[in-house]
Amino acid sequence: MSEFVYRNKEELLYSQRVAQLSKALWRVIEKDWQCWIKPYDLNINEHHILTITYYMKGASVSDVAKYGSMHVSTAFNFSKKLEERGLLTFSKRDDDKRNTYIEITEQGKELIDEANRHYFDTSHAVLEGSVKMKELYGRFPEFLEMTAIVRNIYGNEFIETLEQSFQSLSHTLDVIDQEVHHSELMKEA
Question: Which processes are annotated in GO (biological process) (predicted)?
Fold first, then answer.
């Protein structure tokens, strides 16, 4: 009996620790994210939808909901608002009439690129809180255990898609960095 109680206690404490730490992190992430995208007249869901469709090179509404961790109706409704602003387009595919697909427009890509260029114009508490770890260990935390938990919940495809979107973001940031560097060289000449 005592082993059963201990196991339940351990599991409850673990669950509560994860919940409280996640909530604390989300609170600062949400605040920082909102401050970052405020100049672009976007909310977090809209920004998330734009980035998902940008880095996935288009996606179904269902995929946007899945990878954006939001309800399908949320993904659809916010996507409609973005379509009205000319940032997304909706389409059906000949081979898949059931799903609605979303593509980011050039105007939407430009908006995301512009927001990325100005990322450091606002503060980012999680980043600032992680810098000391980078200075100490030479790299930012990798969240291997958290990634494993998410993989166990959502599956390999979810994590692989996230990793592909991070690689795409990294490539886009390299291009932006080259453009900025080229622009600075032209000013010096």
Answer: response to stress
Other CB atoms within 10 Å distance of the CB of residue 173: 14
pTM of the full predicted structure? 0.84
Pull the structure tokens for residue 61.
């509404």
Write down all domains in the chain, each with its CATH number in brackets: 2-141 (1.10.10.10)
Question: Is residue 172 within 8 Å of residue 116, measured between CB atoms?
Answer: yes
The residue count of the chain comes to 189
Question: Under a CB-based contact definition with an 8 Å cutoff, are residues 110 and 31 in contact?
Answer: no
- Give 99's contacts (C-beta < 8 A, 6+ positions apart): 60, 61, 62, 92, 93
